[in-house]
Amino acid sequence: MKYYLVALFDDVSYKNLSPIQRSLSKKYRANRNSPIPYIPLEVIENPNIDKLNTVIDKILKPYKNFKVELSSTITLCDSNKTLNLKIEKIGYIKKLDRLIGDNLKLHGFNVKNDNTDLHLSLANINYINRDNKKFDTEIEYKPSISTLKVNRLELWKISNNRRETLIQTYPLKTI
């Protein structure tokens, strides 16, 4: 079973991001029941959940809430079938992603690290049109949502039942 470690945002960021998610979902005919926007960090196969929780808690203990800057580039991921928005200036979150991945591999977890660049996943797409398969598009949006504040990481198990999706929440320190 695959488990996903994802970064999530505070309520203000989601409030500012929801109009963009709705408009892009409508434009690209994405699934309306997509999960909330998130940044996928790691994919872990068949972990021991208790050991994983202790390792991630230990890794995240010194980290505070942080901000990520959004780019205006939209991409479609063919392997995950998701509609994504790229992230600019990924220094802090890239450092955290690399640290988590390296420590999980050191502790013997089966980590699949297929993402070379980090992105914000907005919606799931069931069918990708041939014309839209490989594209990068610039969109216009307000500068007020150019930054989003990450305040927690969560461990998800994707299933058909929404109540079983969330496994564990790892809150980051507030300032």
From TrEMBL:
Q: Which InterPro entries match?
A: Cyclic_Pdiesterase (IPR009097)
Q: Which SUPFAM superfamilies match?
A: LigT-like (SSF55144)
**Official protein name in the record:** 2'-5' RNA ligase
Which organism is the protein's source?
Answer: Clostridium saudiense
